[in-house]
Structures are given as C-alpha cells and as structure tokens.
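Late entry, written up from scratch paper. The run itself happened at the end of the previous shift, but nothing got recorded in the book at the time, so transcribing now.
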Amino acid sequence: MDKVFTRFIGVDLGGGKGKNTALAVLERSHDGVTVTVLSPKAKEPPLYDATLISTLLSRAEGAVICIDAPLTLPPCLRCMEPVCSGQEVCVDAEVLAMRGFANSHAEASRDHRRGKPAITPYTQRATDLYLRSRGIRARETLGQAMGPIAARAAHLVRALGQRFRLNDNLIEVFPRATLELLGYGEPYKKRIDRRIEILAALRDLSFAPGVWREECRQSDHVFDAVVCAYTGYLRSRDGWQLSLRAGDRIDAQGWIWIPPQPATPPESAYADGALNREQTAEAERVRR
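Output as recorded:
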C-alpha cells in the first residue's frame, strides 16, 4: 500500500431507514490522529443515504473510508455459472479457501459431528471464516439481520465508485475485532464508561476542540465509527497488506481489515490447508 492517507472516515452503518448510522472523521496529526467530526449529534437528522453519500464525497480528498458492513457479496451470489454443480466440487478460489478453513477445524467441531454444513458460500465469505480462525466471533455476511445492511453497503460501494476503490481507499472493517486484537476484549456496548476508558488508552488518538468524547459515551454507534476510522489509520500507519487468504489471488474480493498477526512467517496461499496447488491452478484456469 503506497498511498499516504491524511483523513480517515469511519462509518458504523445501520439500515437505510433507521437512525443508527454514525460517522467519525479523523485527521492525521504529527503524533497520531485527531477526531474532528462526530455525526449525527443530538437533535441532528439521521444519516440517510443522500446525506451520508454527499458527506463522504465532500471529504474525499486524501481520505480512506472505513465501513463496518459487508462491502462484497458471498461467492455464490457473485457466481456467473448458469447451473450450480455443488459446493463440494466448486473450484472458485474463495470457496476453496473456505473449505480449507473449515477442514482445519472440522474434527473438533461439534457441528461437524452432528452433520451441520461447515460452510454456506451463499451467506459467508472466506474473510468471515478467517476471523474465526483468529478467535473472533464473526458475523456472517448475509446472516440474521445483516441482509438490509449488506444491501445498503452494496449501494454505497456503487454510489462512491467514482472516487473510492475497494481495498484501496474504501475498506471493510469490524470495530469489535480491532479492539479485541488490540487487547480490549471486554464488552463495551452497554458499558458507557468502558468506551471512554478505551479511547483514553489509545495514546495516538485525540479529540479536537469542541469535539467531545462524551458523544462516544452517549452512543455506541458513534464510538464504533471512531474505532472504524482508527482501524483505517492503523492500516495506513503500519502498512497492512491484503492477505492472500482473501481467497482469490487473481481478483481479491471481500476482506475485513483487522490488525495482522504479529511476528509470523509470510502468509502463503497454501497455509493451513486453505488451498492446495492443484485446486489453485484449476481455479485460476477456470476464472481466466
């Protein structure tokens, strides 16, 4: 990642007709980042699509947008084959990666012993399973209650398409996963003081005059928006790279950006049984 971003916009995305969407803008400073905007504040109108999109486009210069919502669809819903041959013989690279993640944990799985499907590529992506391999209780892309948010996120990706490109200056994040991997694993949704404690512990995060941490005490959505933007800052600061475990080395699809594993050997597309060489070669041949 060669770009140097100076602005980090976090979006905790809610449904298009609801009031839970929140936005935070962080500007790079000499010793970290400063929160300059939190929205919506008390008595401000909700961030419906027109307002949200215009706000994001008006702040596009030097910015990366970090959204807590699925920005891509599961592989089955992207598939162009007219007839499905079944996931057991599917050679889509992301499905192969998903099978690899599932197989590496199958023997010890209670669900496996009871015959429950290990993966459902029409509701899950490889990145969802990768989070589980990192110990994160991950949502499913199209799991319960996620459908409307995923649909709205897909609309946003297209609406922002002239200025923002996926996995470049438009990224998917998961604030709870970021905090857990940074060592802040305690629940914070219903613990307003815990949210303030976490913000205070992030030493390179400050608040501009007139922008108050109290907003994050009052709204866990605003707090999550700040953490979304902070995740984008860490990615830029530390040079995180798109993992080969995104499932497709030709055309990277969905990836949730979280703090990488520290001090590990370089990732391989063949690590942990995610892909074998014959399957990968066949997947690349088909996708060409």
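Residues 220-238 form the longest helix (19 residues).
(Scratch paper discarded after transcription.)
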